[in-house]
Design a protein that fits this description.
Rna Polymerase Sigma Factor, Chain: A, mainly alpha, Arc Repressor Mutant, subunit A
Length: 183
């Protein structure tokens, strides 16, 4: 049985059930991310990751419109990526309409959860916060410690609110992973 899709073409994966799309995603994630990193630069990896996520959400939502007679699946995916990037550059932020249309929610820890973690670890969370990459550290400090709204935080970080949310989310996830190792 070809659970991972190794023996199926991209066209077969796109034409199959939504489960098959996971294999298509795994096969092309690095390609799409590299497209965005080349365009934006490695210092904007958070934005490139957000654009990659939106590209695949758009591809999943519109996979029924793919027509193999009009070109290769990778070229179709590249076209979606270019459209997502152009739209985001024009608007000044990543549009996440496909993610919302598919009802994919963001994973975020709220301020109360961070406070509980800090109580349980006796301040270790603040030490772990200092070890995060600068962009995530600033985002987590701004949102969790200073209670800044995402729109305000985005202006301070000079990014879109979506990118600010991602930086906070990734920073909190990294903190959670580090702190879970302590318990």
């Amino acid at each position: 049985m070809d659970v991972g899709g190794e023996n199926r073409s991209d066209a077969e994966l796109l034409g199959g059930h939504a489960d098959a799309f996971g294999a298509f995603y795994a096969r092309h994630e690095d390609f799409v991310l590299a497209v965005f990193l080349r365009r934006l630069g490695s210092d904007r990896a958070d934005l490139a990751a957000d654009l990659t996520a939106e590209t695949f959400a758009e591809a999943l939502a519109s996979r029924g419109s793919f027509d193999v007679s009009r070109g290769e699946p990778r070229a179709w995916l590249y076209g979606i990526a270019r459209h997502v990037l152009a739209d985001s550059l024009e608007r000044g932020q990543v549009r996440d309409r496909a993610r919302r249309r598919l009802h994919v929610e963001r994973l975020e820890l709220d301020d109360e959860a961070i406070a509980r973690i800090d109580e349980l670890t006796g301040g270790v969370a603040l030490a772990a916060l200092d070890e995060l990459p600068d962009d995530q550290q600033l985002a987590v400090r701004g949102r969790v410690l200073n209670e800044a709204e995402y729109a305000v935080l985005a202006r301070e970080l000079r990014c879109s609110p979506s990118v600010a949310r991602q930086r906070v989310s990734r920073g909190l996830r990294a903190l959670r992973d580090r702190l879970e190792g302590l318990t």
